[in-house]
Design brief:
Blueprint: H1 2-14, H2 18-60, H3 62-65, H4 68-90, H5 97-123, H6 127-139, H7 144-165, H8 169-307, H9 314-346, E1 354-357, H10 358-375, E2 379-384, E3 390-393, H11 395-411, E4 418-426, E5 429-436, H12 470-480, E6 484-490, E7 494-502, H13 520-530
Bound molecules: adenosine-5'-diphosphate (ADP).
């Protein structure tokens, strides 16, 4: 039996350990105090009402008939004062909270018991006591020990009070029995409420513990996450650095590759230039030696004829002279060209621009070529759309340009070919075209023939003499006139050289410094020099 009583008194609270138990009681205490505050207010309102009501009864003579109302009146005064005191002085005394709570419960139960005793005399009812017991047991948290002590002691008060104040047996009996039932009910309800609160607390504790656990794991997780993020950021930085280094290395490699390529290109260009230069010198040596050999051999032959007393007839002598003459012109032309090219390179070559009739210059030099051309079996056809066209030009240079193109046209054509020279105006340019129906120039060489020392494969121009500087000189002379030169050619069909000279004049020049077409002898001399590559010519 004692075992069950002990179990009843202790069971739930035992499952809460020291510190948590203290916390539970503190929490219960604060719940109780806040509810007691409500009860105190309700009690004040009720007791004020009852004091007034019973006070009025005194005036009506109720107290005289029933002196118990006087006691009830006093009890209502007590029931009014104590809650006022509770609210006014004690509720907020933090030091004595536990005693204040216990005091209020004791007051509530004892006061209702006292009220019940008075009521018993008036109405033979314990209604106030039952309200008190129910209200306290249902709404206030008490541990079983406390509730047993409070209810049982209040029951003793009821029982003793009934015995002392009542004399009717059935009232005593019913009061003692009802009081006992109320007390047991109060204890049981208190116990149930207490148990609920303990369980609730334990549940909250678990939730709190779990929340704390969750918070802890969240913190751990966050820490791990931030560590991982840092690691990743570091790894990322390292990666970026590695990529940068590898990029720098790649760029370095590319740069050295580029430098190497550039050097290679420069080397190739130098080698190519060297090759061309070498070919040029070989060519020049050949070009110099050939006419020299011819002159030398002819002289030797004439010498041996004289030595051996052989008489040389006029025709033969004139042929020998002719041969030596032509080769002297070839040497002169070659040396002139080399000197001019060197002057152009060093910037000493100057042309003398004057306002001159370009139609006349081209026509005159063409006419002076006709005898040579016809002698070699070529037709030279001149055609101009204009009678006269004055532009800024150097007549001597224009002559050299035209002669060079004409000598090439003859050199690279088969006898009986036609050579056309035409002049016309277009878009503020004077166009001069020199066309032949000779051997033509392969497409891949058309761009390079204007470069210095370039000759189309010897095999295609076999039998034709040349140094490879004629067209380069022509191009430089045209450019000095701010003009351009181009070629259109088809292998086996012929070539057309097109010169475009700007239609401009120079100031400060008098038309009077007129192109004095050099005397015929001079021009013939010039033509002879330029045409000295073509052998089949007669010099008189
Ligand atoms: P070259 O003294 O060898 O004639 P050029 O600079 O005048 O030197 O000409 C360069 C090369 O262009 C010639 O060797 C020849 O192969 C080619 N060429 C020039 N004019 C003609 C043309 N009218 N027909 C065919 N080939 C030509």
């Amino acid at each position: 039996m004692n075992k069950y009583i002990a179990l009843f008194l202790h069971s739930e609270i035992n499952s809460i350990s020291g510190n948590d138990r203290k916390q539970f009681f503190e929490k219960s205490l604060s719940v109780n105090l806040s509810r007691e505050k409500t009860y105190a207010i309700l009690l004040i309102i009720w007791n004020v009402f009852m004091v007034v009501y019973i006070g009025l009864g005194a005036l009506n003579g109720t107290w005289a008939r029933m002196p118990e109302y006087k006691y009830e009146f006093y009890l209502h005064i007590v029931g009014l004062l104590i809650p006022v005191l509770f609210l006014w002085r004690f509720l907020n005394k933090s030091k004595f909270k536990s005693s204040v709570n216990l005091g209020f419960i004791l007051f509530a139960v004892y006061w209702t018991a006292a009220m019940a005793l008075v009521d018993l005399s008036i109405n033979q009812q314990l209604i106030v006591y039952s309200i008190g017991i129910m209200a306290v047991s249902v709404s206030l948290i008490m541990n079983p020990k406390e509730s047993c002590l409070i209810y049982i002691s209040s029951y003793i008060l009821i029982a003793v009070g009934t015995l002392l104040t009542q004399n009717r047996a059935e009232i005593i009996e019913s009061s003692i029995l009802n009081g006992l039932i109320l007390v047991v009910l109060g204890i049981v309800i208190s116990k149930i409420i207490f148990s609920f609160n303990v369980k609730d607390f334990i549940k909250n504790l678990t939730i709190e513990a779990k929340t704390a656990e969750l918070e802890r794991s969240q913190i751990i997780l966050e820490r791990a996450l931030s560590e991982r993020t840092e690691e990743l950021a570091l790894a990322n930085e390292q990666l970026v650095q590695e990529i940068n280094v590898s990029h720098a290395l790649e760029i370095q490699a590319l740069e050295s590759e580029l430098k190497y390529q550039k050097k290679l290109i420069a080397l190739n260009e130098a080698m190519e230039y060297e090759k061309i230069r070498g070919e040029f010198f070989t060519n020049i040596s050949h070009e110099l030696r050939t006419p020299l050999n011819i002159i030398f051999c002819t002289l030797q032959m004439i010498n041996s004829f004289i030595k051996n007393g052989i008489e040389i007839d006029k025709v033969r002598m004139s042929r020998y002279m002719n041969l030596m003459h032509q080769n002297c012109y070839r040497l002169t032309r070659l040396i002139n060209n080399i000197i001019d090219i060197t002057k152009i390179d060093s910037g000493y070559f100057k042309i003398n621009l004057r306002n001159q009739n370009i139609v006349k210059i081209v026509e005159d030099i063409t006419l002076s070529v006709i005898p040579f051309a016809e002698y070699n079996g070529f037709n030279v056809i001149f055609n101009s759309e204009m009678e006269e066209k004055v532009i800024a030009c150097d007549p001597d240079m224009i002559e050299r340009i035209i002669l060079n193109l004409l000598s090439n046209a003859i050199k690279f054509s088969v006898p009986n070919g036609n050579i056309y020279i035409s002049l016309f105006e277009m878009n503020n340019y004077v166009i001069i075209k020199v066309r032949d129906n000779g051997i033509g120039i392969p497409e891949d060489k058309q761009r390079t023939i204007f470069d210095r020392f370039i000759q189309v494969d010897k095999s295609t121009s076999r039998g034709r003499e040349g140094s490879g500087i004629g067209l380069s000189l022509v191009k430089s002379l045209v450019e000095m006139h701010n003009g351009i030169i181009d070629v259109i050619s088809e292998l086996g069909k012929g070539s057309e050289f097109i010169i475009e000279l700007p239609d401009v004049t120079v100031k400060s020049d008098q038309e009077s410094a007129e192109y004095s077409s050099n005397n015929l002898v001079d021009k013939t001399e010039v033509v002879r020099i330029e045409f000295s590559d073509i052998y089949t010519m007669e010099y008189k």
